[in-house]
């Protein structure tokens, strides 16, 4: 079991030496800083005295959410009531010692707290500032409220993750995780790295403006150019892929869903032979990818009937022997037990001081000389108040005690 140690001096990640201040809550900004922390940055997270709401999200264990162990890993957490003027002074003192700031308040909210761009740059002129919001920092919708699910809907993803038209009257299906927040967080982290790289060359700071809506919209492949040139609106396809066939999930005889991706001509030829129906490749309905895409309903029915005649183990073995891309549809239990994930450290047991043994995902992307294990797990509320204010800012014990007595910490 990995024993995280934030002070063991083993951090040689590519961002080691950079310090990032997080004024974030919920998912998007904290996910961005988690990625930066995974790659070696020192992250100081500011949260209200009651803690980030994500501490209470999802399943609970020993009074805390296990998600927090991962969500706030590699971070030093301090508590500040940003509504108090004294907290503003602490933030600006921290900014002087930080390379970047990541926040996801509504546009203009930090400025109303006295922490606008002018104040931040007065504290550190070359600061990199990453802002994550629902619609972006300008435009007619900048002040509208939004969460990740709103970004997913406006960005076009919720429409495409649904079942095919006419097959269900249920609401459009959600991906199942906060994908809008997470994608925005990835873009914010990328923007911070790019801006820091530019600062190394020019000495100039920068501002990154990430919108949840735009982050999801940027993933829609050819949907926009197809609409612009052909006037076609891409429709949801359920488990299939609109541009390549066959690719879908098929139920084995014992009820297990098996994803089969035989969407090139050589792969389809092998699948047809495996099913004992080699003549399918000569059938005009399935001769070439365009024809197969136009006739996916019929083709999926043929493959589904064949898959339904085999138990999952036998189906998996047959597809493996034929070298056809396939997999069972994994649950998180399958992921935790997967030999490949375990071998690469993508599933690892970590010792969390608050929870005991916790499973953590490894670091993505993997980079040489970068530890794949977290340096620390998500700490308690205000766990690093004294160390950050004392070591980083040089506040003495009396000043820290005064801030605590005044309800600032």
TrEMBL record:
<dbReference type="InterPro" id="IPR003673">
    <property type="entry name" value="CoA-Trfase_fam_III"/>
</dbReference>
<dbReference type="GO" id="GO:0008410">
    <property type="term" value="F:CoA-transferase activity"/>
</dbReference>
<dbReference type="InterPro" id="IPR050483">
    <property type="entry name" value="CoA-transferase_III_domain"/>
</dbReference>
<dbReference type="Pfam" id="PF02515">
    <property type="entry name" value="CoA_transf_3"/>
</dbReference>
<dbReference type="InterPro" id="IPR044855">
    <property type="entry name" value="CoA-Trfase_III_dom3_sf"/>
</dbReference>
<keyword id="KW-0808">Transferase</keyword>
<dbReference type="InterPro" id="IPR023606">
    <property type="entry name" value="CoA-Trfase_III_dom_1_sf"/>
</dbReference>
<protein>
    <submittedName>
        <fullName>CoA transferase</fullName>
    </submittedName>
</protein>
């Amino acid at each position: 079991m990995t024993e995280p140690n934030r002070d063991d001096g083993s951090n040689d990640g590519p961002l080691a030496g950079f310090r990032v201040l997080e004024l974030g809550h919920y998912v998007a900004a904290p996910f961005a800083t988690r990625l930066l922390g995974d790659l070696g940055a020192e992250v100081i997270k500011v949260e209200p005295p009651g803690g980030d709401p994500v501490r209470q999200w999802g399943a609970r264990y020993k009074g805390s959410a296990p998600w927090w162990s991962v969500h706030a890993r590699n971070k030093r957490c301090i508590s500040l009531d940003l509504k108090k003027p004294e907290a503003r002074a602490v933030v600006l003192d921290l900014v002087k010692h930080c390379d970047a700031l990541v926040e996801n308040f509504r546009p203009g909210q930090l400025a109303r707290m006295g922490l606008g761009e002018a104040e931040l740059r007065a504290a550190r002129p070359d600061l990199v500032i990453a802002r994550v919001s629902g619609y972006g920092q300008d435009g007619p919708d900048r002040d509208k409220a939004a969460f990740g699910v709103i970004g997913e809907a406006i960005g076009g993803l919720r429409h495409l993750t649904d079942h095919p038209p006419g097959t269900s009257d249920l609401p459009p299906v959600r991906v199942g995780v906060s994908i809008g927040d997470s994608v925005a967080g990835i873009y914010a982290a990328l923007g911070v790295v790019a801006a820091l790289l530019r600062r190394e060359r020019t000495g100039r700071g920068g501002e990154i403006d990430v919108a949840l809506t735009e982050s999801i919209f940027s993933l829609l492949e050819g949907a926009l150019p197809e609409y612009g040139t052909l006037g076609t609106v891409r429709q949801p396809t359920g488990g299939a892929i609109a541009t390549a066939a066959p690719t879908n999930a098929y139920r084995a005889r014992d009820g297990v869903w098996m994803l089969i991706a035989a969407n090139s001509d050589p792969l389809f030829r092998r699948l047809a032979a495996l099913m004992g129906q080699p003549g399918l490749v000569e059938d005009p309905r399935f001769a070439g990818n365009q024809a197969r895409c136009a006739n996916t309903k019929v083709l999926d029915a043929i493959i589904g009937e064949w898959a339904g005649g085999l138990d999952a183990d036998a189906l998996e073995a047959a597809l493996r022997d034929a070298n056809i891309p396939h997999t069972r549809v994994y649950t998180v239990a399958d992921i935790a037990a997967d030999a490949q994930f375990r071998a690469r450290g993508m599933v690892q047991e970590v010792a969390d001081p608050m929870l005991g043994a916790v499973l953590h995902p490894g670091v993505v992307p993997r980079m040489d000389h970068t530890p794949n294990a977290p340096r620390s797990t998500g700490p308690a509320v205000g766990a690093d108040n004294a160390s950050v204010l004392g070591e980083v800012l040089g506040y003495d014990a009396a000043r820290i005690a005064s801030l605590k007595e005044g309800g600032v910490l």
